[in-house]
Amino acid sequence: MSGLDKMKARILDEANQSASAIISQAQEQSEAQIEAARQEAQAEAAKILEKAQRDAADYAGRVESSLDMRRKQAVLAAKQEIIGEVIGRAYEAVLNLDDDKYFAMLEKLLEKYALAADGEICFSQKDLGRMPEGFTGRIKTIAAAKGGTLTLLKEAREMDGGFVLIYGGIEENCTIKAVFDSGKEELSDQVNRLLFG
To answer: Is 110 exposed, middle or buried (0-12, 13-18, 19+ CB in 10 A)?
Structure first.
């Protein structure tokens, strides 16, 4: 082998060694970059996962709160419906009391609302038809005890039950419906306590 060949062989050998070193260094750098990118991707994925878990927990909490509110609203609506039905049945029961109990109740109502003045009282056609004997006298007695007078009007009013008092053109609605309506909140509270504690 000539000197030129030896020199070429040495240059080629040095070039191969240098290329091997460069390739090895490039591989190491590439692996380091890949590892750094992998670690960065894992860290980013962990952050994304953590945020997704937080968001899911927040959403689940909002859904649970919304469902709880809807459940409470449904329970409240059901309770109000039941209370309304109970009050409606009580109203019907009062209207359908036997005559003695019904007119005894009307006497108590009259004692509460009669004024110390001259006035008139009117009833429904149904109540005029089932009014017990002597009830007109009870009306006069109750009015007198209050310091006034009441005249029974024979003309019926359109109402379910109870009566209307008229003093000097001013009417006092003492119908059973008006009594129930005026005490609706109190009745609702009492029924609520009785039914639901």
So the answer is: buried
- Alpha-carbon distance 197 to 90, whole Å? 19
Query: How far is residue 112's CA from residue 5's CA, in Å, rounded to a whole number?
Result: 136
- For 111-159, the pLDDT digits (tens) are 999 999 999 999 999 999 999 999 999 999 999 999 999 999 988 889 9
**On the CB side of 124, how many CA atoms lie within 13 Å of its CA?**
16
The CB density around residue 12, as the number of other CB atoms within 10 Å, is 10
Residues 6+ apart with CB under 8 A from 187: 87, 90, 180
pTM, two decimals, is: 0.62
Contacts of 79 (CB under 8 A, 6+ apart): 192, 195, 196
Q: On the CB side of 89, how many CA atoms lie within 13 Å of its CA?
A: 6
φ, ψ (nearest 5 deg) of residue 2: -80, 170
